[in-house]
Amino acid sequence: MRMAWLRRLWMLWEALFRKLAGVRPLRNDGGEYLFLLATRPYVGKPFLVDGVTVKKHDLVAELHMNNEMIVHVFAEGHGMVGLSKRLLDAGRLSLPVVAERMQDPEFEGVEVVYGISFVHRVAEAFGFHTFPMNNPFIRAVTTWYLRILFQVVNPNGRKFIKRDPDMFVPRVIAISKQHLIERYGR
Question: What are the backbone angles phi and psi of residue 22, rounded to the nearest 5°?
């Protein structure tokens, strides 16, 4: 009961965050996609991905996980193996839509798609590069936030984090727009 209340509260926070941060669904077609998108100027330290250097103030596309979808998948009760398979399938279906969206005029100045995630091992299999987060303060806050989120969406989250805390350290995941379109574009 307490967990359901906490999830509802968290989803309200997610909705507010999306609105304030300009995070939008991939499409408004009613499809359930694993990712959401936002565009903004990059504010971190420079990095290189697929031959593209991203510097402060460069326009980037931020990839956000659709936590509402993840909460629903956990609620279906498939267990971790079923959840992993469902999320991998959702990623496979969503990345071509991300590639398609990157060709929209609103993403014209974007050269890199990036995000911050615990699932960086899986992201590498999908063609993304991963980097450690350089700023210790931002890394600590992001780690705290994502661990809380994981515990909210996963009833066994606390157990997983205690068992393997090093696995739950977020990393930057990034792919160039060109590589994304080449790999997933239609």
Answer: 70, 30
pLDDT (tens digit per residue) in 29-51: 877 899 999 999 998 889 999 99
Query: Residue 110 has what pLDDT?
Result: 97
Q: What's the rounded Cα separation, in Å, for the pair 119 and 100?
A: 23
- Long-range contacts from 69-78, C-beta under 8 angstroms, 24+ separation: 69/32, 69/33, 69/34, 70/153, 71/7, 71/10, 71/11, 71/152, 71/153, 74/153, 74/154, 74/155
Other beta carbons within 10 Å of 44: 17
Q: Which two tokens stand for residue 57?
A: 């103030």
Q: Token digits for 182? A: 């080449």
The angle that helices 67-75 and 2-21 make with each other, rounded to 10 degrees, is 160
Contact call for residues 143 and 168 (beta carbons, < 8 A): yes
The C-alpha atoms of residue 124 and residue 24 are separated, in whole angstroms, by 24
Q: Which two tokens stand for residue 130?
A: 């991963």
Amino acid in the structure at residue 96: P
What are residue 172's DSSP bridge partners?
A: 116, 131
